[in-house]
Amino acid sequence: MISAAPAQQMQGEALAARIEVLAQFSSEPDALTRLTLTPAHRDAADLVVGWMAQAGMDVHIDALATVVGRYEGTDPAGKTLLIGSHIDTVRNAGKYDGNFGVIAAIAAVDRLNRESTKLPFAIEILAYGDEEGVRYPSTLTGSRAVAGTFEQAALDDKDADGVSRREALARFGIDPAYAATQARDPARVLAYVEVHIEQGPVLEAQGFPVGIVTAINGATRGAITVTGRSGHAGTQPMSMRSDALTAAAEMILAIERIGRSTRGLVATVGRIETPRGAVNIVPGAVAMSLDVRSPSDDERREAVERIETEIAAIAARRGVSAKFACSHDMPAAPCDASLMDALEQSFLHLGFTPYRLASGAGHDAMSFRGRIPIAMIFARCKAGVSHNPAEYASPGDMEAATAVLYDFIRMLSRE
Ligand code: HGY
Ligand code: MN
Ligand code: MN
Ligand code: MN
FRET partner for 55 with CA separation of 20 to 30 A, picked from 107, 188, 235, 324? Predict the structure, then answer.
């Protein structure tokens, strides 16, 4: 194979080309949907295995279906720099969320390899397959396993078809012999770095192509179930109904009002269904999701309590019952101050303004909170649109973020 110029893979066009290739792996013909442990995830993982191998890495797929590429350092006793992001997506997703971070990391190591540059530390690229948490209630299982905070109970999570995560891993083809041990010893890890699109409007509003992440907002997720009494839509008088869906509608507006009540807080009901519902049945049951985020963990937990109080009051008034079951509670994760300062040096070295901003979106980096110092590099994305097929990052901005990552890696090797 003709070896391209060392930095070829890091050029915007090459990054954009790989975004398009990876985006082809979907469970839907006309949208990008790649849920964890599906055939689309398997195919994408196999493609990433090939890219990592081409970049001179030893590659395996671990017990939680994370693709792990290792680029050895000069010192066998040296530490390891972890660089990760995810290749699973939401339904009808954008092409860049998660996927760009994996492609950027491989491009940076590819350049090191082409230049035959070896560093005093090893590099491991981690392409996780379970960051979005769409198929199963628990999430971040891949990065939690690497960080050492994985909970075995997550293996018994069931998807909407009743398929457990354990069963899905077996169908994915995880050969237990193939799966290396998971948790990294924090004493052997230099840092965890993640490149990601911002998924918000700030960098575009400021006019910057890249940014330094200061912290990742904490997140609470779970399910609200509302139970009323189903009835005949034609015969049941309005005054005699226990309609679970109209009660849920009032609860959704109350959740929105609480979300709006405090700066920095956001609260979302993203999915709602009336199990066994029909056009001519007064809904007796509703299942809906809840997602609450804030930079402040106290503020987020207080908002969840206010939401639980409010939905109980609405339920009582409407003669239904309501319950919130939390499935994911992740504290806000501050990025490491010295890593942010080092990133700032790379920004300045490359002529970028070292603009710092928080992340409203959750990331695998959160799994390392309090165990391994984390740093994140954001690339601008168009109009801040994400979790939407219109999501877009320009080749120039992807090139800028990848150049920062490469420069940062080289700088860490000089410390
Ligand atoms: O929900 C999130 O913030 C992430 O995109 N999974
Ligand atoms: Mn993401
Ligand atoms: Mn996402
Ligand atoms: Mn994320």
Answer: 188
